[in-house]
Amino acid sequence: MERSEERENQFELDLQAREEPVTEDEEKKGLPNNNFPVLQWERVLLRQVAVCTLIILLLWLIGKVPRFGPGLVDRFRYVLRYGESNRTEEKLTAFARDQWQKIKDEVSSWFITAELQPVFAPSSRSIELTAPIYYYEERELSPQRIRFLLSSGSSVYASGSGIITEITGEKGGWKLCLDHGEGWYSIYYPCPRVYVKVGQWVKHGEEMASTGREFYWEITNSGIPVDPRPFIEEAGSWH
Predict the structure, then answer these.
(1) Chosen domain end from 74, 94, 120
(2) Same domain, 180 and 113
(3) Is residue 220 domain-resident?
C-alpha cells in the first residue's frame, strides 16, 4: 500500500516537472527547453543561406575564367531554368557529377594551350562563333544573315557552345535558336531534320540538324541582328 502511494506521488511530481517552464538557471545548466527545435531550424536555415552565398561567389569567380567559365555558368543556369522545382536538388547533384570531369579537362587544356593572355587582354567581343556549314555551293551575304545553297541533307553544326532555347516551325523545316550567353544568339533555318531538343546543352561543332537545298544563318546580340561575316573571317572558316 505504501509503495503504491509512493509511486502515485512520484508520478504527480514528474507530471508537474514537465508542465513547469524552464528557468534561466536551468537553461544555463544545459537542461532541455521547448525552444530547441526553433533554434535548430534557424541554424539549418542560416547554413543553407551560407551555402547559397558561397555557390553564387564561386560561379561569379568561375565565370571570369575564359573559354570554360561562361559555359559552365550557362549550364548551371540551364539546370535551374528547365528543371522542375521538386527535382532541383536531384538535378543539381547530377549536374555536378557530369560536369566535374569536363571542368578538369577544360582547365588542363586552358593551361596547356597558354590561354592566360586573354584574361589580361580581353578582346572587344566576348564570343567567338564559326560557320555552321562546312561545304556549300554558293553563298549570299546580307547585313542580317548568310544564305547558303548546298546539297540537301548537309549537316548543321553548332557555331558555339550554348543552350537550345527554341525550335519552331519554318517553311521547309524547323528554325533553331541557340543561346550562347551574354545576349548572344545564333539562328539556323530551315532544317528538315533536327537532332536536338529545347533545353539541351550543345558543344561547339556538335551536329544539330540537317538542311534542305537552302539554308540561312543569323547572329543577334540583345535582339539586334549582327553581321555574321566578321565572325567567320576571324575563325578562318569563310571560303
Answers:
(1) 120
(2) no
(3) yes
Amino acid (1-letter code) at residue 170: E
- For CA atoms 4, 9, 11, 12, give the dihedral sign: positive
Number of C-alpha atoms within 13 angstroms, CB side, residue 215? 31
CB–CB of 76/94 below 8 Å? no
pLDDT: is 180 or 88 the higher one?
180
The C-alpha cell that represents 3 in the structure block: 509503495
Task: Kindly tell me the number of DSSP H helices and DSSP E strands found in the chain.
Answer: 7, 11
Query: Which amino acid does the sequence have at 217?
Result: W
Over residues 133-159, the pLDDT tens digits come to: 988 889 888 888 999 999 999 999 999
Alpha-carbon distance of 202 to 195, in angstroms, equals: 11
- Cell triple for 51: 551555402
Provide the CA 3 distance to its chain's centre, in angstroms: 71
Main-chain dihedrals φ then ψ at residue 228, nearest 5 degrees: -80, -15
Residue 216 grid cell: 540561312
Report d(CA 47, CA 224) in Å as an integer: 43
